[in-house]
């Protein structure tokens, strides 16, 4: 089992999923490929460790199909050329640990590149990131939006992936619609690529330590007290559901500045009652009362009063049956 600490996003250079030291991680079986099997399609951003590309991979194993595929879209995170041996070692170590996270609703590492520049190859949704898919669907379908039942399936897939991480005591630290991709058969997979993507820079807040944090999605105790755990992810999940049910048309609390969002976190901290002065996101017009009630539970002031992802998944499964 992979254990996690409560800490802030940004402690790791390579992923929002912060990782504790483990022994013998390199014994995990993962394919290694040469860089010539990757064709760069687009540079999507940079991290402090290096750069991130959308690529087409040739002849590598596909987690979705369980077979070798001629071509498939992938995300490749690469180190800068000439980085220290220590950084290379830490990078490869963390990638080996991430490779052990295997679930149909979580993007997986499909290969490592152990030649300059060192890199890790992640699967990517064939239909792109979830916000773009939702917005483009209406444009390409004569102004017809995705159905409410389909949106429910999307948020159930996300809950399923997060339930898996929760079962391993892993906190995501950056759960949002931008960190979900759409795969074959409209399967949603949770990823953590967005913080490296230029297109999502405006959805992050740069704090006094020059660290990008997903302020508008974070639980108040994560912002003010640095508590990063699965219960903080549940808060972010409620916000992600709100995004999806409003068709990703705007960021959460779009009428508030970052400073006002920080002040709202302070209201949560100081309020005697969870709904005293603190503000929550409004009820989406497409959302049932039962589902919105679940979302507000995700935003409970006290972490122990929030549901688990297992609870959320069971609740959503019941809604989908009905």
Describe the protein in words.
One of its GO terms (biological process) is positive regulation of neuron projection development. The protein is α+β, with helices and mostly antiparallel strands and 322 residues long. It has helices at 85-98, 130-140, 148-167, 220-225, 230-245, 258-270, 289-298, 309-321, and strands spanning 38-47, 50-62, 67-79, 109-113, 119-123, 180-182, 188-190, 205-206, 212-213. It has a 5-stranded antiparallel sheet with strand order 1-2-3-5-4. A two-stranded antiparallel ribbon has the order 6-7. The longest helix has 20 residues, at 148-167. The chain is globular, with a radius of gyration of 19 Å. The protein starts with 37 loop residues before the first strand and ends with a helix.
Please write the string of helix (H) and strand (E) elements: EEEHEEHHEEEEHHHHH
Low-pLDDT residue spans: 1-11
Q: What is the helical fraction, as a range of percent? A: 25-40%
Strand portion, in percent?
Answer: 15-25%
Strand order of the largest sheet: 1-2-3-5-4
The chain-level structural class is: alpha+beta
Secondary structure tally, helices: 8
Give the oligomeric state of the chains in this entry, treating copies of one chain as homo and distinct chains as hetero. Answer: single chain
Mind describing the biggest β-sheet? Answer: 5 strands, antiparallel
* Principal-axis shape: globular
How far do the termini sit from each other? 35 Å
Question: If you compute it from the alpha carbons, what radius of gyration comes out, rounded to the nearest whole angstrom?
Answer: 19 Å
| Number of strand segments | 9
Question: Could you report the average pLDDT, rounded to the nearest whole number?
Answer: 87
